[in-house]
Every structure is written in C-alpha cells, then in structure tokens.
Specification:
Strand content: under 5%
Shape: elongated
Structural class: little secondary structure
Number of helices: 1
Distance between the termini: 52 Å
Radius of gyration: 16 Å
Order of helices and strands: H
Length: 196
C-alpha cells in the first residue's frame, strides 16, 4: 500500500515542486520533473524510473531504497541527503552534487551510472556498487569507499585525496591520472586496474 500523502503528490504534479513533502512509495516514473524542488522530502521506496530530473534539488531528502534507474539527473543536488540502498543504475548524474558531509550513500547501486564531474567529497559510500560507473573527473576527496565495488569503473582524473578505498574492489578500473594522495588502499583489489 502506498504511504505517500496525496495532497503532497498533487502539489508536485500541479506546481512541479514539493519541499518537505511525503512522497514515500509514490510511482513518479516517466515524468518530466526537470528542476523540481524536493528539498527535505521523504521519497523512501519511491519509483522514479526514466524520470527527467535534471537540475532537481533533493537536499536533505530521504531516498532510502528509492529506485532512480535510467533517470536524467544531470546537475541534480543531493546535499546531505540520505541515500541508503538507493538504486541509480543506468542514470545520468553528470555534475551532480552529493556534498555537505554526511551525504549517506551506503549500499547504494550506481551500476553503469554516469557520475562524470560529480561531487562526492566527504560522502559515505560504504560498500556502494559502482560497477562500470563513469567517475572520470569526479570529486571524491575524503570519501568513504570502504568495501565499495568499482569493478571496471572509470576513475580517470578523479580527485580521491584522503579517500578510504580499503577493501574496495577496483578490478579492471581505470585510475589513470587519478589523484590518490593519502588515500587508503589497504586490502584493495587492483587486478587488471589501469594505473598510468
């Protein structure tokens, strides 16, 4: 059963924004919500498959177990959002902003996701799945990637100074020109990784 507040959903549909609303469990797939303001909203378990959300604002929103697959999220803002177990597979998150420490991306899935030039500084990506993700030119300073899966990920020129990559799986990953000063690579798997 859907748990969302119908008046909040109506507000989103009529005005294109719904800050601090309850949209948990709502199906917002295939909609054009470009630039929408969802600051502080509860989108737990919501479905936004193939939704157009470029430039959308999800700051301080709760997106636990939200499905955002194959969505257009370029330049979206997720500052201080809760994104545990969120599925972004196949989505375009180019230049998206996940900063303001404590952005929580634990166990989230970014399979085949475009995160080129995205900002994830100080984010918690504990055991996140970034298999074949494009993280070229991404900002990952102080990011926790402990146990993350980065198999065949593109980290070309990624900024990962002080990042925690301990126990991460970087098999086949491209790390050419990546900045890794003071990064923790203890027990990281680097088989077939491209380092130069």
């Amino acid at each position: 059963a859907a748990a969302y507040n119908s008046s909040d959903l109506n507000q989103l549909m009529s005005s294109g924004s719904c800050a601090y609303g309850d949209l948990s469990g709502a199906d917002l797939s295939n909609l054009d919500l470009t630039g929408t303001n969802l600051t502080g909203s509860n989108l737990t378990g919501a479905r936004l498959i193939k939704t157009k959300l470029a430039g959308a604002v999800f700051d301080k929103a709760v997106l636990t177990k939200t499905v955002l697959t194959n969505a257009e999220l370029a330049n979206a803002s997720f500052k201080a959002a809760q994104l545990n177990y969120t599925n972004f597979s196949g989505s375009d998150l180019k230049t998206a902003d996940f900063t303001f420490s404590n952005c929580d991306l634990q166990f989230s899935v970014f399979y085949l996701t475009n995160l080129q030039e995205a900002t994830l500084d100080s984010s918690n990506c504990l055991e996140a799945d970034l298999t074949q993700a494009n993280l070229s030119y991404a900002w990952l300073y102080n990011t926790n990637l402990h146990g993350a899966v980065l198999v065949y990920a593109n980290l070309f020129n990624a900024k990962m100074n002080n990042a925690n990559l301990s126990n991460a799986n970087l098999t086949g990953a491209t790390l050419s020109q990546a900045l890794l000063q003071n990064a923790n690579l203890n027990n990281a798997m680097l088989d077939k990784a491209v380092l130069d």
